[in-house]
Protein: Rrf2 family protein
Organism: Mucilaginibacter gossypii
Amino acid sequence: MGIFSKTCEYAVRAVFFIAQRTADGSRVGIKEIAVNIDSPEHFLAKILQDLSRRGIIQSVKGPNGGFYLDAQSLARPLSDVIEAVDGGGIFRDCGLGLKECSSKNPCPLHHDFLDVRNRLQNMLESITISQFNEDLNLGIVVLKK
Amino acid sequence: MGIFSKTCEYAVRAVFFIAQRTADGSRVGIKEIAVNIDSPEHFLAKILQDLSRRGIIQSVKGPNGGFYLDAQSLARPLSDVIEAVDGGGIFRDCGLGLKECSSKNPCPLHHDFLDVRNRLQNMLESITISQFNEDLNLGIVVLKK
DNA sequence: ACAATAAAAGATATTTATATCTTTTATTGT
DNA sequence: ACAATAAAAGATATAAATATCTTTTATTGT
Ligand code: FES
Ligand code: FES
């Protein structure tokens, strides 16, 4: 596992893809998403169902249905996706696994970890779901391979 | 899971504890380590066996035996423990799970991730296993609860 | 040599994360 | 109403991480 769970990696890649693909108001199906972000289709379906229930993404069933993002969702910080999938532990938990992280009774790495964690959090809170749409269109950044 | 695997968290806490407890040349047994870092004894035993095989820590069997750290081990950077247990993926892998991380074909988060990752790596490479011995003695930092 | 000690190694169990397949429900166009 | 579509939900399956228990091996002091 990397810094995020595999589930969360798929979620973020999918959300970026949906943002790019539906900026024009259309919808995109699970199959197409899975192919384009290189994820197992049925597993991704579960993940997106969950994100949909939580209101992080939108979906409609039936013909011409699929997943999309409304204006509010497009503007969300990426940290909302991370929190929804992995929980906020990555922003709050002790890096050495102590039951609680605090400056009273800190672990040896507390000070340094706090810095790294805060940087990560600031980064993910300042990135929006839609901000890479153009770079994705231009192929400057990619979501697979 | 946090930024490291549970296995790795136990490993780091154990290594810090062994460093502090054996700075005087003595050894410390698995039971005592497990109690003091609040980890499952037998599981930790496996982890330390592995670290011992890899030369990250030292051990002797029999009466008055136990785990300890030689001068070389005491001076190791903490990153060596992380690499031994979790592999170096945390320092190298794409944050979004792409098969390879590179500035050719970067994922959307590549630039920002690189920064966070490098900070983490620099931090772990500049911390030595023994550098918290005194703070641990003084109770300024802790390895459990 | 012997008994005691403590880690190493082996075998197995449990839990969690990841993945797949099937059935159901909502929506759309005819 | 009906047929087609696509997500939602449910039921399993597989793999990996975490955990426990038992047996073996090396070392020490007597
Ligand atoms: S106590 Fe460990 S990171 Fe804060
Ligand atoms: S390609 Fe994703 S972090 Fe480098």
Remarks:
- Chain A has eight helices and two strands.
- Chain A touches chain B at residues 1-6, 9-10, 12-13, 16, 89-90, 93-99, 105-110, 112, 115-116, 119-120, 123, 127, 132, 135-136, 141-145 (CB under 8 Å).
- Strands of chain A lie at 58-60, 66-68.
- Residues 1, 27, 29-31, 45-46, 48-49, 52-53, 59-67 of chain A lie near DNA strand D (CB under 10 Å from a C1').
